[in-house]
Amino acid sequence: MSLQQELLRLIESWDLKLGGELTPDTPLIRSGLFDSLALFNLVQWIERQIGAPVDPTTLDLVEEWDSVKDIVQFVELHRLGGPQQ
Amino acid sequence: MNQKYEILRYRPEHRDQVIELQKHLWSSDSRRNSAYFAWKYEQNPFLNEILVYLAFLRGEIVGMRGLFGSKWEAGLPRQESLMFCADDLVISPEHRNRGLFTQMMNAALAELAATREGYALTLSGGLTTVLGSLTMGWKTIGTMQPVGLESKSPGKLQRLGASINTSIKKIPFFWRFAESHWIPAFAKEERFGQLDANARRSPRGEGSVWIEREAKPEAMAGLVAALHYDGRIRHVRDARYFAWRFRNPLHEYRFLYAGSSRLTGYLVLRRSLSDLHDRVRVHISDWEATEVNVAAALLRAAVSWGQFSRLATWTATLSNESRRILSQAGFVPFDVNLTARGCPCVLVRPLRPEKSEAGWTFAEKKLLDLSNWSLRMLYSMSG
Question: What is the ipTM, given to two decimal places?
Answer without folding.
Answer: 0.91
